[in-house]
């Protein structure tokens, strides 16, 4: 007898339908699975055989062939265990199921027949809804996550026996539902706030400008000056995440297996801070079956690289594609996958190896050569994509205890939102530009006109500070954002003046 079932496989962040056929024939007993890579087949076969026996069924003493289609699609993971086991029992006439293709089935089996959680369930559920089906049978632990894709029955099962009882109508299982809007609204808040940061108002201002124009930012300062604390709070002033954006970010985390079962939806912007020892694959994504890297896990949020000069230069060079295209493409012999990767980049570094070069209260113990070597480790192409540099001063204990709480994230986010609205209008006819940071030369020429006074100021600054041509375009873009925050159509001299201040590194002699 031939049994046919439906399942799903995840490729990148999207799921695809997989047909599973089980057939039995009078040949030497055994189980052959066609359509899975070797290693996965071996493991799946062990689990399926064991689970079947432990649920009180027999492993048929004839030959079973499981065929998974389409054959040319690379399938991975353990989500096919459950449909394979069910197909095998149907093919050997140990159970009978009416219209098994009404359901889409995914789940890993453990040896004792328990159904274990799998990765990428949100993507699967979204696909199942699109395909249309009577229900999606998933591991109980994944039911909450699956239910986030509304508009489809999610049937949670905790064991092979329970799935069989349901499919043979011995028991009823009520579809699992959640109130997506209430999850979204409850989880939309941050537990940290810029109010927690005392003083440092001009750094907060620089971060606000960065957030308002989508500019990447670099913070330079001695240890303990609060760089990490400040960076962590950037997501709290970016515009509220929309539900669609939240779903997209959640899919990536789900595929990476990073979603914790109690948080089915990431409703706040992610903040990722990978250690400087991270590998290429860890940052960009990769592996024999490509996984999303940190750049994708920070999609719609902030990627923070602390202690920038410690990162491997080659690893940093890889940031070029995602910074330019908002996605990464990973090519392997058998496939090429794309993951979204649109994030705001924030980087931090000490000004020298000992950390105290810019600190007026500590003596720096580094030689000029050491400092130059340290700074030259920052990748030039990466620096080219960072519009704003600020020096974060260390506050004394007295300053910290004296200062009252400053601006809070809510009021900052409101300003950011207003400035972003102006930019959306400005670039409404553009396909790839949504904010000032993404402007190319022709946009800059069109939207960043300076009056005489501003031109003069910029010319002087460039000559006096010895700024490069690269710095010139960056200053124009950032001044556009500052003017937007000021709701000013024209870029005025005070806007240019502020933008010039955000080029600390260009002014440092040690940048050569
Ligand atoms: N402006 C501030 N307001 C309140 N607390 C602060 C401020 N600056 C620093 N702190 C306190 O000092 C701690 C250290 O700050 P943080 O780790 O952000 O410094 P850092 O600049 O990242 O240092 P490092 O270079 O060592 O990484 C913070 O956890 C916070 O408790
Ligand atoms: Mg730090
Ligand atoms: Zn030093």
In short:
By secondary structure, this protein is of the alpha/beta class.
Structure report:
This protein has two domains: 3-178, Ribosomal Protein S5, domain 2, CATH 3.30.230; 213-404, P-loop containing nucleotide triphosphate hydrolases (Rossmann fold, 3-Layer(aba) Sandwich), CATH 3.40.50.300. The protein is built from 22 helices and 18 strands. It has helices at 38-54, 81-91, 121-131, 143-147, 160-167, 180-186, 201-213, 227-232, 243-255, 280-284, 294-297, 313-317, 320-325, 368-376, 380-383, 397-402, 409-426, 441-447, 452-465, 469-485, 493-501, 504-507; strands spanning 3-11, 14-25, 30-34, 63-69, 103-105, 108-109, 115-116, 135-139, 154-157, 217-220, 271-272, 285-286, 291-292, 302-305, 327-331, 336-340, 344-349, 388-391. The protein has a five-stranded parallel sheet. A four-stranded mixed sheet has the order 1-2-4-3. The chain has a three-stranded parallel sheet with strand order 5-8-9. Strand 12 (285-286) and strand 13 form a beta hairpin. The protein binds adenosine-5'-triphosphate, magnesium ion and zinc ion. The site of adenosine-5'-triphosphate has 15 residues, from helix 8.
Tell me the quaternary state: single chain
Coarse shape:
elongated
In percent, how much strand structure appears in the residues? 15-25%
Number of strands: 18
In the sheet with the most strands, the strands line up as 11-14-17-10-18
CATH domain class name of the largest domain: Alpha Beta
What name does CATH use for the topology of the largest domain?
Answer: Rossmann fold
* Main sheet summary: 5 strands, parallel
Helical amount among residues, as a percent range? 25-40%
What would you call the structural class? alpha/beta
Query: Which whole number gives the mean pLDDT?
Result: 90
Give the end-to-end Cα distance, rounded to a whole number of Å: 76 Å
Low-confidence stretches: none
Number of helices: 22
Domains counted in the coordinates: how many? 2
Using the CA coordinates, give the radius of gyration: 28 Å
CATH architecture of the largest domain: 3-Layer(aba) Sandwich
Q: Which ligands occur here? A: adenosine-5'-triphosphate, magnesium ion, zinc ion
CATH superfamily of the largest domain: P-loop containing nucleotide triphosphate hydrolases
């Amino acid at each position: 007898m031939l049994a046919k079932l439906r399942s799903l496989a995840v490729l990148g962040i999207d799921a695809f339908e997989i047909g599973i056929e089980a057939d039995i024939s009078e040949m030497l007993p055994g189980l052959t699975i066609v359509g899975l890579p070797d290693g996965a087949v071996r493991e799946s076969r062990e689990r399926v055989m064991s689970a079947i026996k432990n649920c009180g069924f027999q492993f048929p003493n004839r030959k079973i062939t499981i065929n998974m289609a389409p054959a040319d699609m690379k399938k991975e993971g353990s989500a096919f265990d459950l449909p394979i086991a069910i197909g095998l029992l149907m093919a050997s006439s140990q159970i009978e199921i009416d219209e098994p293709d009404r359901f889409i089935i995914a789940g890993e089996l453990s040896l004792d027949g328990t159904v274990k959680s799998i990765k990428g369930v949100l993507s699967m559920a979204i696909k199942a809804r699109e395909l249309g089906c009577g229900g999606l049978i998933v591991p109980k632990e994944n039911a909450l996550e699956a239910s986030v894709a509304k508009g489809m029955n999610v049937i949670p099962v905790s064991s092979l026996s329970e799935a069989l009882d349901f499919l043979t109508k011995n028991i009823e299982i009520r579809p699992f539902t959640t109130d997506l809007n209430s999850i979204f609204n409850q989880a939309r808040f941050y537990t940290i706030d810029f109010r927690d940061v005392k003083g440092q108002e001009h750094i907060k201002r620089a971060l606000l400008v960065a957030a308002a124009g989508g500019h990447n930012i670099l913070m330079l300062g001695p240890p303990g000056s609060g760089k990490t604390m400040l960076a962590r709070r950037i997501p709290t002033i970016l515009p509220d995440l929309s539900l669609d954006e939240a779903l997209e970010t959640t899919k990536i985390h789900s595929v990476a297996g990073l979603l914790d079962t109690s948080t089915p939806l990431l409703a706040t912007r992610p903040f990722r801070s990978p250690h400087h020892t991270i590998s290429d694959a860890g940052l960009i994504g990769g592996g024999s079956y490509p996984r999303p890297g940190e750049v994708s896990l920070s999609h719609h949020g902030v990627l923070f690289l602390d202690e920038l000069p410690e990162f491997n230069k080659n690893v940093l060079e890889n940031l070029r594609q995602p910074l330019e295209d908002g996605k990464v493409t990973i090519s392997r012999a058998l496939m090429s996958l794309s993951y979204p990767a649109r994030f705001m980049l924030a980087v931090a570094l000490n000004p020298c190896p000992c950390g105290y070069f810019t600190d007026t209260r500590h003596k720096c113990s580094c030689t000029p050569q050491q400092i130059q070597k340290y700074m030259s480790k920052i990748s030039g192409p990466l620096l080219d994509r960072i519009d704003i540099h600020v020096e974060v001063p260390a506050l004394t204990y007295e300053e910290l205890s004296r200062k009252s709480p400053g601006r809070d994230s809510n009021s900052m986010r409101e300003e950011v939102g207003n400035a972003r609205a102006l930019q959306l209008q400005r670039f409404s006819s553009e396909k790839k530009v949504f904010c000032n940071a993404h402007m190319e030369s022709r946009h800059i020429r069109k939207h960043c006109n300076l009056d005489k006074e501003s031109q003069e100021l910029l010319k002087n600054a460039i000559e006096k500070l010895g700024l490069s041509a690269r710095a010139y375009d960056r200053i124009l873009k950032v001044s556009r954002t500052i003017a937007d925050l000021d709701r000013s159509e024209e870029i005025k001299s005070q806007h240019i003046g502020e933008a010039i201040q955000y080029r600390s590194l260009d002014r440092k002699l040690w940048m050569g």
